[in-house]
């Protein structure tokens, strides 16, 4: 029977539009909780109907893409055909051709068709996606590499190894050119290993001369994959076992049976460590090792550990130390829960029973969840986040009336709950998360929001001066997290108020961000470079990046995507929203990362600065090109949104067009 939370889920805004952001957050929660397949399907289909009934095509396309992925991963290919057809028809109806949303939908549909064995249709959609991507994306965009990888798998599935190899070579070139550190790039390692296998398959179709050439090249790719894992200190990683198996297959085809056996043996050790000796991977690798050992013996080849220029031996102290370290890391990873998931589990285990047993008359009036400051409230926490403000805990939010009656008693009962849970705890509170700044426990709703924003509730829509007092990072902290229960709806209503930034304020902030982008990126970066003031040029790039990141959230509307968080998590948030369907300027986060990667060479380069003797000039030109590209994309998006009719490329000159949409005469909203 479907979970109650699914039956009651509703993702409609007050204006009737579908809340794609809330839908995605809840879907992630269900997947993280290992919800039953039928429950997740029920949730997806309910969301599908809700988005369709709301007439929200963008929301509907978002849900369709998720349904396609769900059915594909469960092998329900016939059910998926209808979803694929609907998604393509809807994307065409929305006139998305050429956009990133169109590309994403094509890829998802093609991948579903490939999984179903409908290769001809899949290939056609992949080619359409590639044609659009090559026009839309920068040549160095790693999404292009992923698309070439998808095509290579299709060609491999259909017995076309030569074409598969070509696609992998294209992916390899993109990844190599865009990687900040190719020597330790795991995506590059995987592509090298896949290319080795593709060339191995290709070699079987060639004459002896070409076969030997292909095998030699395949061997180089396989060895390079191992070297990358080795340089990244990942020789106990399960993906390293796959790379070893690729190396072994190529070595075996070359008649180097002893090398193949040594690689299989090392892969077997890693598989045993990660998956156990009862796994299919262990069984298959054992069979391959047995075959390689037999062939080596018949050929009179002795089997030793692999040469250290290729990989590490499996019996030395360094390997044993790294293996022990990986076992410890694996144990931590397997047991680690995100803060939101831990909070929900703790609430279910202890919070709900507490209210039901001791405060039954208030159960229908108290909200629970985790919102506020801290990486766990954004869902960005990892193993490095557990040293402070992590552990069992949740928030209980009460109205003023209820808090005055039971607030102190409920806090005392909350404090009496177990301090450890599921192997975590007690919670380590940082100095900034104690007393009146506590992050978990019992709160009066208005006081909770005031502790974050300074306001008991969101400023009125006609009070722009109050809205302008609250920065985006503060609004992000007030509107993030998850609400596990809110039967009265008082907490969510208050939180929704902070998320509903007035359009006049949003337009004013967009204008300000355009002004900073033009001043720092289009004007001052090059002037500071020409003056030889590297630090000032560096700061110009920083200001341009911050303004552009904010602009991306504002253009996509905080009501849909939330607010840009504080600096530590800005790029994590940018990557998250850029991967969603129909996100505007979705290519910008990758372009901003490229800017920052080039900043050192451009601002502090000069002759011989680690750039092969080329100095700073190439990086300066690339940065200026990236800035110009981002600004041009911004103008095109503003035009598409009907916010400007101007084609002026200097963003400062676009500001009057944006501010013409502001209806209020409040001076604070208008530039001079």
Automatic annotation (TrEMBL):
<dbReference type="Pfam" id="PF13228">
    <property type="entry name" value="DUF4037"/>
</dbReference>
<dbReference type="InterPro" id="IPR019734">
    <property type="entry name" value="TPR_rpt"/>
</dbReference>
<protein>
    <submittedName>
        <fullName>Tetratricopeptide repeat protein</fullName>
    </submittedName>
</protein>
<dbReference type="InterPro" id="IPR011990">
    <property type="entry name" value="TPR-like_helical_dom_sf"/>
</dbReference>
<keyword id="KW-0677">Repeat</keyword>
<dbReference type="Pfam" id="PF13424">
    <property type="entry name" value="TPR_12"/>
</dbReference>
<keyword id="KW-0802">TPR repeat</keyword>
<feature type="domain" description="DUF4037">
    <location>
        <begin position="467"/>
        <end position="569"/>
    </location>
</feature>
<dbReference type="InterPro" id="IPR025117">
    <property type="entry name" value="DUF4037"/>
</dbReference>
């Amino acid at each position: 029977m479907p979970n109650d939370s699914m039956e009651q889920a509703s993702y409609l805004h007050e204006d009737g539009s579908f809340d794609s952001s809330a839908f995605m957050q809840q879907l992630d929660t269900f997947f993280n909780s290992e919800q039953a397949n039928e429950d997740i399907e029920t949730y997806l289909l309910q969301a599908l109907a809700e988005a369709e009934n709301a007439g929200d095509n963008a929301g509907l396309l978002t849900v369709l893409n998720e349904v396609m992925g769900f059915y594909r991963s469960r092998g329900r290919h016939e059910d998926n055909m209808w979803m694929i057809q609907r998604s393509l028809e809807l994307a065409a109806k929305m006139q998305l051709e050429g956009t990133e949303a169109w590309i994403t939908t094509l890829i998802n549909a093609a991948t579903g068709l490939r999984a179903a064995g409908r290769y001809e249709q899949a290939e056609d959609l992949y080619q359409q996606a590639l044609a659009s991507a090559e026009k839309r994306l920068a040549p160095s965009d790693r999404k292009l590499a992923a698309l070439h990888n998808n095509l290579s798998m299709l060609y491999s599935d259909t017995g076309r190894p030569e074409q598969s190899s070509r696609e992998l070579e294209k992916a390899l070139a993109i990844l190599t050119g865009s990687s900040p550190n190719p020597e330790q790039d795991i995506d590059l390692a995987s592509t090298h290993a896949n290319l080795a296998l593709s060339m191995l398959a290709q070699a079987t179709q060639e004459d002896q001369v070409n076969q030997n050439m292909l095998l030699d090249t395949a061997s180089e790719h396989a060895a390079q994959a191992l070297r990358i894992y080795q340089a990244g200190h990942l020789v106990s990683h399960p993906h390293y076992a796959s790379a070893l198996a690729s190396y072994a297959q190529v070595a075996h085809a070359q008649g180097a049976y002893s090398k193949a056996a040594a690689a299989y043996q090392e892969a077997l050790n890693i598989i045993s460590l990660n998956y156990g000796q009862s796994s299919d991977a262990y069984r298959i690798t054992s069979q391959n090792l047995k075959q390689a050992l037999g062939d080596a013996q018949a050929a009179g080849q002795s089997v030793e550990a692999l040469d250290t220029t290729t990989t590490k031996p499996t019996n030395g102290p360094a390997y044993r130390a790294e293996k022990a370290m990986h076992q410890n890391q694996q144990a931590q990873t397997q047991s680690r829960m995100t803060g939101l998931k831990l909070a929900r589990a703790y609430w279910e285990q202890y919070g709900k029973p507490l209210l039901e047993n001791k405060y039954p008359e208030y159960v229908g009036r108290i909200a629970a969840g985790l919102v506020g400051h801290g990486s766990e409230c954004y869902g960005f926490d990892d193993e490095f986040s557990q040293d402070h403000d992590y552990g069992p805990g949740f928030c209980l939010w009460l109205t003023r009336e209820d808090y005055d009656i039971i607030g102190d008693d409920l806090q005392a009962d909350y404090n009496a709950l177990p301090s450890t849970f599921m192997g975590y705890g007690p919670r380590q509170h940082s100095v900034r998360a104690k007393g009146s700044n506590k992050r978990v426990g019992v709160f009066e709703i208005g006081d909770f929001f005031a502790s974050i924003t300074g306001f008991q509730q969101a400023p009125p829509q006609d009070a722009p001066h109050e809205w302008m007092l609250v920065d985006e990072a503060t609004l992000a902290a007030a509107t993030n997290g998850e609400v596990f229960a809110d039967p009265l709806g008082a907490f969510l209503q208050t939180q929704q108020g902070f998320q509903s930034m007035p359009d006049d304020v949003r337009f004013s902030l967009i204008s300000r961000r355009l002004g900073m982008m033009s001043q720092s990126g289009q004007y001052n970066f090059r002037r500071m470079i020409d003056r030889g003031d590297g630090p000032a040029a560096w700061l110009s790039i920083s200001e341009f990046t911050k303004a552009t990141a904010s602009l991306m959230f504002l253009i996509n509307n905080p009501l849909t995507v939330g607010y840009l968080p504080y600096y530590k998590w800005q790029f994590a948030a940018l990557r998250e929203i850029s991967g969603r369907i129909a996100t505007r300027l979705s290519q910008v986060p990758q372009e901003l990362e490229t800017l920052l990667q080039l900043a050192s060479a451009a601002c502090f380069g000069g002759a011989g600065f680690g750039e092969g003797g080329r100095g700073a000039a190439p990086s300066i030109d690339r940065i200026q090109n990236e800035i110009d590209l981002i600004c041009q994309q911004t103008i095109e998006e503003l035009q598409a949104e009907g916010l400007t009719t101007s084609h002026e490329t200097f963003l400062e000159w676009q500001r009057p067009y944006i501010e013409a949409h502001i209806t209020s005469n409040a001076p604070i909203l208008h530039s001079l």
